[in-house]
């Protein structure tokens, strides 16, 4: 059950023209009488926006004026992620009780040239982190470029490592020793580098019969971008073709993964966005999704914030997608290599195996046929075991890849986040498939080979320090008795 929001705003989207100076007013009201209500303004707007009152605490009711000055349009800024928040904050309380996120759209923003960043080398190689030297990537969470308070850029993984190793949980820049405080997940991304990576990694259109997100121009193309001006999805080639004319060149485009979420409109009040969700299936009050105006009439105690539930569910699906992606692209290839190395170690072409044959022939001349047959059977059994494990991995790899595509398809369609039970089931199915892998896959060097071959070689016992015991080296001067 949630408490009814004491603060209300009259709009959640502000549209400004990039070439015009304009002002919009947000009315902040409250229904609470007889006590003071405090609000707080939080935003990430660039200097071309004036806020009155400025960021910080404010008394409610009040009016907030947002003014856009087109003459101060910065060269480099992420205009696809402008956020303006009016949060409720009671006097003498430290935590935010609720917040109203207001999306700001800058329409017709001109395309700006991307200036070469500090981490970009002169030979046009891909920019990389100065600490780990790995190339920045928008796809790998740990390699996303983040900007420190001093202006230097490091990958997210190195920022987190520096913070974890610091006694006061801060990030100390290795270049100038300046300190950056706060949660690494809230550090500003270097969108200059990200845009550069996007431009230098352009891909041809993906043809498929049933794409996850179809291109508006060609339904058989997989969409890669969303044009906020056209309000449709495009693949890269179709976007370039459609927007090649000068009149359309200033349209705003974002990657399909960053496509803004469109809130649902209230059924009873078509001009209002849905703000709440009723989780009680047997609730007599309708509808289940409703706005602030419907709140007084919906007295069900099982009411939660609509945007919080969407954000929570989407975050869970993102984690599931990242987990399956990690299994598909990292765990499975490594596991396959281990098993292939294991299988190769039992090859009869290996010198170690050939020396074992020689020992058997020297020590058991009269029994060599029986001993060799038993040793060959041991090798075949070991290789068969490795092959069966390899076949199991190959089979599960294809199924896991399919599950990953299903989860990515669910994410890219950007709907249905209220019910992610099917996605959770896919995560459970992947974990169940990983559980069937045989944990112990010993190589030939892990076995205690006996020249007598009276029985199959047994694995060396594991000491307490878990260090593998090695086979004794072959002594060419060893006296061997045939009659042993």
From TrEMBL:
Residues 455-484 are annotated as: Disordered. Residues 210-256 form the B box-type domain. Keywords: Metal-binding, Zinc, Zinc-finger. It comes from Caenorhabditis remanei. GO terms for molecular function: ubiquitin protein ligase activity; zinc ion binding. SUPFAM superfamilies: RING/U-box. Residues 129-177 form the RING-type domain. One of its GO terms (biological process) is protein monoubiquitination. This is RING-type domain-containing protein. InterPro entries: TRIM45/56/19-like, Znf-RING_euk, Znf_B-box, Znf_RING, Znf_RING/FYVE/PHD.
